[in-house]
Amino acid sequence: MNIRSNSMMALACLALATLSAPAAADGEPASRNAGHPASPRHAAPMTAAPQKPGGAGVKLEYRLDATPRVGQATPVVLQFDGVTDAEGATVRLSADKGLALQGSSTLALPAGKRTTATVVVVSEAEGLAYLNVFIRHGGASSAVSVPIQTGTAAPTLKSSGEMKSTPGGDSIITMPVK
Known about the structure:
By secondary structure, the protein is mainly beta. Helices cover 12% and strands 40% of the residues. It has helices at 3-20, 30-33, and strands at residues 47-48, 59-64, 73-81, 89-95, 99-102, 106-109, 115-123, 127-137, 140-150, 162-165, 171-174.
């Protein structure tokens, strides 16, 4: 063999070696991130909570860092931005029935800084429950409900009324006045 055929053989081997290594969409080899589901490259995108006119004006984004399962801890990442009041803002957290909040239920947000907090919730049953986030900032307040869907159980509407028919044949539910 001459030098030229050795060079061609080396290029062919290099090309085959490169093609045999699987790569992720970002071009990185898959093995580099294997076994690290919480790796920043694979973290779920943040969901922006809607802001209502007249609310606190603090932007909230959130994501779940695990699939909610009954009896297991689910980290919920909350990211706050837009605190302009010199005294900062305060956050109070509460969980719906069927969802337990672990750790502190209050946060202090400093002015002019993006704040990220990870809150841990534990689902006590399958179904839909909410982590409620109450933000107080500059005399205004906002409430955001972060949905936590555990399992595949669909939410059910609890009716305290009774089904009746109208003279026109329509069905209605009568509700007692409390």
